[in-house]
Amino acid sequence: MIKLTCLLKRKEGMTPAEFHAYWRDNHGPLIANGKTGTHVIRYEQNPRPLTDYRDDDDRSGYDGVTVQWFASMDEYFAHMNEVDSPEMFADLPKFLDTDHLEFVLTEEPRVIIDGEVDWTN
To answer: Which of 5, 34, 75, 111 has the least CB density, counted as fewest CB within 10 Å?
Structure first.
């Protein structure tokens, strides 16, 4: 298993709510419904809570984390080389500060604590 984890910072002039809406409603579907998405096992958008911002001008920290899961490095490379990959990359500057885009590829995690979590409480 390979995971692509990206730290996202919204582009200048975009409010947190505008950023999260664009990421969810425009960029997410590009991956989920495109050829690039055929290589993705799981695609997560982990948005920063809107209540964590001081105001719409708060530019501290990152605005979210995205995680994409791939079966192998070959699948990751196939994802990056799909015919609609240029469309996906062209969309990034519409909502991201691409100068502050950080990413890392990782393998299977080393599980240190594996406790049961009851999310219903």
So the answer is: 111
